[in-house]
Automatic annotation (TrEMBL):
The EC number(s) this enzyme carries: 2.5.1.47
Family: Belongs to the cysteine synthase/cystathionine beta-synthase family.
Organism: Paralcaligenes ureilyticus
Residue positions where N6-(pyridoxal phosphate)lysine is found in the record: K112
The protein's name in its UniProt record: Cysteine synthase
Pfam families hit by this protein: PALP (PF00291)
Record GO biological process: cysteine biosynthetic process from serine
Entry-linked Gene3D superfamilies: 3.40.50.1100
PANTHER family per UniProt: CYSTATHIONINE BETA-SYNTHASE
Limits of the Tryptophan synthase beta chain-like PALP domain: 71-353
Length: 365
């Protein structure tokens, strides 16, 4: 018996030495790595039976499967790129740099992938929902697409309620991910009506509403991921952060994180001017103000005209090669206004999604 133990140790040591690399997850941990029972070949025949090893940590043996990321694991870590032409006189002559955070590079195509993953994961961790449950959400598009993807990955049924005047691309993407759509007549009250209907359906026991407008996990997604990314990508040099405002999850989370690093960073919110319709963002009436919204976290508001945002979306694509959505271009209009007032600033704006999502509107024609 003692002899077997000695030999066993020696074989293990040899296996360690010969291992080309340990089995690790994409994030460098060994958690969840698959274990394997391995029969050691090549040792004396009588010992083979005794050498069947039990489950061993992957860090020790190289016989485990590498754990690859899921599609959900690829949310975040989006690029930050410098604008070269559009800033013009407001840019380098004033010592300003304008940077675009490309959230359209997320797997379901928008900044909302972060919020969707955060809201579903955390609700699951708290035991509020479990795979197989039905989730309901009122959405103007991007959140719906992101939730539909996350629900597909995690095994939930997804019901999305949206006004019927939103783009066909958005609807098609949601159904592609397997979500059920309920279209509400835009004339009947747009997003406000959709939000009320979602809560009514929850009260009738038809499913659980994540409520991106009141859910702190929406904001948390940016405190935990977008904020640290941006801080690291700018080496802490960011002076101004500009975001279009919808649920306000992005701007609230970024304000919270960035201010915790440097209280002087200016937070600028872009909202549609009176009479302008820019998909994904709103200046909400008082009764529908998102519960996660805290106006004290925003230093300045810029009202953006729809025509200016659409024109800038075309310029962003044709002059900078960045094919973003209309609200993203609206944020850039706001960023340029800031750049014209300041010097030696590092101004970051969020490109919430990609222009492909708006092709059917004809805005890029
Ligand atoms: C196109 C677009 N832009 C901007 C936003 C605003 O992001 P947030 O809801 O975090 O304020 C959204 C939100 O859904 C959006 O869909």
């Amino acid at each position: 018996m003692a002899l077997i133990v000695v030999l066993q140790r020696r074989v293990i040591a040899n296996m360690r030495a010969s291992a080309g690399g340990a089995c690790v997850n994409h994030d460098g941990t060994h958690k969840g790595c698959r274990y394997k029972y391995v029969a050691v070949a090549g040792v004396g025949a009588p010992l083979v039976g005794a050498m069947v090893l039990g489950p061993q940590p992957c860090s020790v043996y190289d016989f485990c499967m590498k754990k690859y990321p899921t599609i959900e694991d690829t949310v975040g870590a989006t690029p930050l790129v410098r604008l070269q032409r559009i800033p013009g006189a407001a840019g380098e002559p004033r010592g300003n740099v304008i940077l675009a955070k490309l959230e359209g590079n997320n797997p379901a195509g928008s900044v909302k992938d972060r919020a969707a993953r955060s809201m579903i994961r955390r609700a699951e961790e708290r035991g509020d929902i479990k795979p197989g449950d039905t989730l309901i959400e009122a959405t103007s598009g991007n959140t719906g697409i992101a939730l539909a993807m996350t629900a597909a990955v995690r095994g939930y049924k997804m019901v999305l309620i949206m006004p019927d005047n939103l783009t066909l691309e958005r609807r098609a993407a949601m159904t592609a991910y397997g979500a059920q759509l309920i279209l509400t007549p835009a004339k009947q009250g747009g997003m406000e009506y959709a939000r009320d209907l979602a809560l009514e359906m929850q009260a009738e026991g038809k499913g659980k509403v994540l409520d991106q407008f009141a859910n702190p996990d929406n904001t948390l997604a940016h405190i935990e991921t977008t904020g640290p990314e941006l801080w690291q990508q700018t080496d802490g040099r960011i002076t101004h952060f500009v975001s279009a405002m919808g649920t306000t999850g992005t701007i609230m989370g970024m304000a919270t994180y960035l201010r915790s690093k440097n209280s002087k960073i200016q937070i600028i919110g872009a909202q549609p001017a009176e009479g302008s319709q820019i998909p994904g963002i709103r200046k909400w009436p008082e009764a529908y103000q998102p519960k996660i919204y805290d106006p004290s976290k925003v230093d300045a508001f810029e009202l953006i005209d729809q025509a200016d945002a659409e024109n800038m979306a075309r310029r962003l694509a044709s002059e900078e090669g960045i094919f973003g959505g209309i609200s993203s271009a609206g944020a850039l209009v706001a960023a340029l206004r800031v750049a014209a007032r300041v010097e030696n600033a590092t101004i970051v704006f969020i490109v919430c999604d990609r222009g492909d999502r708006y092709l059917s509107t004809g805005v890029f024609n």
